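Input structure tokens:
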């Protein structure tokens, strides 16, 4: 493979290139399912890394069962460092056990979470022993590594 970086007109600037290789066969690393019924348990307060959108991976699902009443927030960071829309993540949504949308994360100008964005949801009141789900979809045909973290405050 070759990478060509052309000059833009008469302008010149220093730059860095970072190449990441994702070996075939770990395309759904960190969350190997595409449905709510198979949701991966996401521990509170721990950063979890995963990939979305490689091969036929259309959605990642996580579940959290609350140990107490409180206020829940989640954070998602698109680890793709390309700085372009290629490698975006779709709108990330928090749902209750009946599938009702409680809150979601996207940007004001796009319906995707672009490379390098690190966004936190609004707080949502949650109930002890209730189960909630986090849906992380790919954006179109894009694929991206990401990290997700869920926090509960009382």
């Amino acid at each position: 493979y070759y990478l060509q970086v052309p000059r833009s007109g008469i302008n010149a600037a220093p730059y860095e290139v970072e190449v990441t290789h994702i070996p075939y066969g770990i395309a759904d690393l960190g969350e190997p399912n595409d449905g709510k019924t198979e949701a991966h348990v996401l521990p509170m307060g721990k950063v979890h890394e995963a990939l979305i959108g490689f091969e036929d991976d259309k959605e990642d699902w996580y579940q959290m069962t609350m140990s107490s009443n409180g206020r829940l927030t989640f954070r998602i960071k698109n680890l793709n460092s390309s700085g372009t829309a290629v490698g975006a993540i779709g709108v990330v949504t928090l749902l209750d056990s009946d599938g009702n949308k409680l809150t979601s994360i996207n940007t004001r100008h796009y319906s995707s979470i672009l490379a390098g964005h690190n966004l936190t949801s609004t707080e949502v009141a949650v109930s002890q022993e209730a189960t909630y789900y986090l849906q992380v979809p790919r954006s179109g045909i894009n694929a991206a590594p990401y990290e997700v973290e869920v926090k509960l405050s009382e």
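The mean pLDDT is 84. The longest strand covers residues 144-153.
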